[in-house]
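User: I need a structural model of Alpha/beta hydrolase-fold protein from Nocardiopsis suaedae for a docking pre-check later this week. Nothing fancy, just the predicted structure tokens so I can convert them on my end. Input:
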Amino acid sequence: MFSSLSRRATALAASSLVVATAATLAAVQGAHGPVPAQDARTAAGAAAPAPAPEGPAVHPRPGSVAVCDEPGTDEIVRVPDPAAPEGGRPIWVRRPPGPDSADLPVLYLLHGSTGTHTDLKDAGIGPKMDEQMCRAGIEFVIAAPFGQEVGGADTEWGDAVDDDYRIETFVTRKAVEAVEGDRRRPRELRAIGGFSMGGYGAAALPLRHPDLYSQAVSWAGYFKVDDPSGTFGDRAEEHAPDRLLDDPEVHDIRFMLVEGRQDRTPLQEGSIHGEAERFAGLLREHGMAVETLFPEGGHTYDTWTPTFPQAVDFLTEGWTGRAGTASGN
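Assistant: Understood. Predicted structure tokens for Alpha/beta hydrolase-fold protein:
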């Protein structure tokens, strides 16, 4: 994003702050599971999506789900990947109490340019998510993959044009396989979110893989390509969220965009300031559902985490089938 040194310094300062507040959820599981489905994108490297259930698979039970009495459990899953340190790419996975199920939503979380999966874990996001799950009455799995590569490039959560690393493929295929296994979720129960560079990834990946994700939450993201390491080479437009909205298949994806009022983190061109408003306008022009939040603060977790309850409520509306199709605020 911007001059790579500048963004990394800003993001590193943010990662040192303690995460406060949080997100929610808990689910009564449906009786049915997904059936394997074929899709053209599977051949292109994305995980095969499961068909949607006939009706909403989750039903809120505020204050009455297992995580209200017992915390979720953490696990680090390591998947072979030669572009990752020690040849394995880790994923922090936090699961609510009880058995896994194809009817249990999953939120994939992407860290920023200087961060890691453990930064999110160590910031206390897991326990705070537990609190919100109890409040909202919908449980969900959190999965945060590691998005760095051994050469230190700014990966932008993408596949390098020279094939040095394939982070997008990892997130959209290998991470889904590792987290969900044979309990593959329908896209309606799979969401993606992220912070800073991860906020960019949380917008770009669902637009590039609309068969996989139905909802996205971007905290301090940017919606044009900002690629200081040249990850995308001369194919940058294929990865620009603001250039990916004409495909009818993306028009049912719901977005929440969060941007601090004082966030002026520089990009290669311009800054993050105004990106949420700009992208929200484009989404509305295409008839897509979007909600925006502009909390006081800059490019820090102290700005973003107070919006977790609203973000979880937003996701819950989609997961329970209560969301409308019109654009939000």
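Before docking, keep this in mind: Confidence is low (pLDDT under 50) at residues 1-56, 325-329.
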